[in-house]
Design goal:
Radius of gyration of chain A: 16 Å
Largest interface: A-B, 53 and 42 residues
Strand order of the largest sheet of chain A: 5-4-6-7-8
Distance between the termini of chain B: 19 Å
Number of helices of chain A: 4
CATH superfamily of the largest domain in chain A: Winged helix-like DNA-binding domain superfamily/Winged helix DNA-binding domain
Shape of chain B: elongated
Largest sheet of chain B: none
Mean pLDDT of chain A: 93
Low-confidence stretches of chain A: none
Number of strands of chain B: 2
Helix content of chain A: 25-40%
Radius of gyration of chain B: 15 Å
Structural class of chain B: mainly alpha
Shape of chain A: globular
CATH topology of the largest domain in chain A: Arc Repressor Mutant, subunit A
Strand content of chain B: 5-15%
Low-confidence stretches of chain B: none
Mean pLDDT of chain B: 93
Oligomer: heterodimer
CATH architecture of the largest domain in chain A: Orthogonal Bundle
Number of helices of chain B: 3
CATH class of the largest domain in chain A: Mainly Alpha
Largest sheet of chain A: 5 strands, antiparallel
Chain lengths: ~150, ~70
């Protein structure tokens, strides 16, 4: 396995997420790098093992490339004329941080089920509900035990 | 990590799910952490972080409790 290509593939997956709001399939990545789908699949699995992103192993599709989510969630991030989904309350802020852009975030609060709007403008956080809190249930050493729960 | 409107909602969620309470940050704290954590995520040069690098980011974000440094 070529280590340089491995990290180029990681970068391609992230750029594809940023450009299109969804992850590239194994076939798209294989075509981009002129390698077989089987090889691309092996690179995806290696990046999953290194926690570079998180695969649905049955379908070899990217479920999470933090902060981006491959599936709809309670955290919508509108930025650069696109709508992304974030994996969690941290990642909803992670998307404008990663893209270095303004954003309008719509998030559903747990338990109360209220939707709140949060804005990032010129690097500053703006929102009207000043009691908003984020709960981290697990310490860092356990984040990868069950990434969906985390 | 979930978003809540108050400490009371967090306690209710923990009780309902029979889970211990973790660490709670304000949205402003999470934004400061996000900039440090994700600011270089789109770079080709980003290859992940060591435990020591992670601890340094938590320190820079002002996160001081043992929760963040649990090995």
């Amino acid at each position: 396995m070529n280590d340089s290509l491995l990290w180029q593939i990681r970068h391609f997956v992230y750029k594809h997420f940023a450009d299109t709001t969804h992850p590239p399939s194994v076939d798209i990545t294989a075509a981009h790098f002129n390698i077989s789908s089987e090889e691309a699949s092996e690179y995806y699995k290696e990046l999953h093992n290194r926690h570079a992103f998180f695969l649905d192993l049955e379908s070899t599709t990217v479920r999470m490339a933090n902060p981006f989510s491959g599936i709809p969630t309670d955290f919508s991030v509108h930025a650069n004329g696109k709508t992304y989904y974030a994996n969690c309350a941290w990642d909803m802020l992670g998307i404008p941080a990663a893209l270095h852009t303004d954003a309008v975030i719509e998030a559903i609060c747990t338990e109360s089920n209220e939707t709140v709007e949060i804005q990032i403008q010129n690097g500053n956080l703006r929102f009207t509900n000043y009691d908003l809190l984020v709960h981290f249930p697990l310490s860092f050493s356990h984040w990868y035990d069950d990434l969906v729960f985390t | 990590m979930l978003l809540f409107q108050s400490e009371e909602w967090i306690d209710k969620w923990c009780r309902r799910n029979n889970l211990q309470r973790g660490e709670v940050l304000t949205l402003q704290q999470v934004w400061e952490l996000s900039k440090l954590w994700y600011g270089n995520r789109m770079s080709l040069e980003y290859h992940g972080r060591s435990t020591e690098q992670v601890a340094e980011i938590f320190k820079q974000a002002g996160l001081k409790s043992e929760f963040w440094y649990d090995q």
